[in-house]
Amino acid sequence: MWIRGTGxxxxxxxxxxxxxxxxxxxxxxxISLVGDNVYELIVNLxxxxxxTDLSYDALITIVREHLQPKPSIMAE
Length: 76
Description:
This protein is mainly alpha-helical and about 80 residues long. It has helices spanning about 5-20, 25-35, 35-45, 55-65. The protein has one domain.
């Protein structure tokens, strides 16, 4: 999965560059490349929306916030 702030995002961006993937094709390319488990996570995180209804950046933000949540003040 390609998440900003991790090496995985860098790998994804390099894939897009190396294959000359246009911005409007980043989301469909991402969805076609992730495995079943990651796609299921994406669908669950999108709640009532379909992943294909979001922009690439919006989807990356949703997944990143899930995988890298901000620390809770209450927990500290």
